[in-house]
Amino acid sequence: MAAAVTAAAPPNLTSLRFHGWREKPTFSISPTTLRFFRNSSRTKHLTQVLALVDEQQQQQQVSFTEEENSLVEALIGIQGRGRSASPQQLTDVERAVQALESLQGIPDPTSSSLIEGRWQLMFTTRPGTASPIQRTFVGVDFFSVFQEVFLRTNDPRVSNIVKFSDAIGELKVEAAASIKDRKRILFRFDRAAFSFKFLPFKVPYPVPFRLLGDEAKGWLDTTYLSQSGNLRISRGNKGTTFVLQKKTEPRQRLLSTISTGTGVKEAIDEFISFNQNKGIGEPELQEGEWEMLWSSQEETDSWLENAANGLMGKQIVKENGQIKFVVDILLGLKFSITGTFVKSGTTTYDITMDDAAIIGGQFGYPVELESKFKLELLYSDDKIRITRGYNKIVFVHLRTDGTGQK
User: pTM of the prediction?
Assistant: First the structure.
């Protein structure tokens, strides 16, 4: 529940309502100002500005309980909403999900207004029995996926949404919904359409819902709804587990942006700036296995040079000052180059890579190759590392091992 607004704090902008002002604002406002808001032709624009400011505030102030944070931490680094999760990652998520389900969240989630709204799908399991409609949505890795729940209307609905981008639009598949009990929502998909930004009308999505029969019907149990209304765990009639969030923490938003491939540089700059403002101490080159997720430059040299300069593959950092780059080639062959790192500044390291080989099984073929460059740590924690390396290229790496002890 939002804290009360005091005179020393800025007003909570979410308390404003622009529907005839039938609801009393939670902070004082003069009649003159009120008449201006009510009558001005700029009300719509102001509403959009306030919504944007409020969204920015919310994005900076996401709080989770200790148990909820364990689930969020387990989700960070899992790509494709679970499609490419390792066995250890799946175990960590399932353990965190079970811990939350055993706790007392909102006792009657289907009766709570906190279940209403747009939820972003962060993770899902994929049993082989998943319905065709479900597979359509959970299988789209390069776009954001959302679920809208609106039960307190004359036309209760649950909708699945694939958002292509802000510039292109989205696909929404809607289902008529009803509440069965304190946890379960019944639904039946009945319509779908594309909403493109460049078209003034919706384009129907050709799905013969009536012919799908029971495949168009299902139910959704909410097994955990957080007291803050930010986190939800649901299980479907096909045995699928869903983890959804209304608000995401900064690392989740950065990874989501990288997965879409749009505005990544701006997102990285904002993320680094945000963490610098939080006063986080100087980062360290942590040991462990790190998979390259994104770089600011495409590979332009030969693949051997790209691999030697860290523009592809995995990096293995050891505590004894050794570092290795490993790239899978094909048919079980790998390229490996080993080197050393020496700290040369507060956040900089000198990297020397000089022991390269093509490896197949127990055999290796030496390659004459050397690479030297300076590595600057822009951000690092147990999950994500952002660096500026060879040729001033910015890299984002994800940690892929459990403990990093190699």
Answer: 0.74
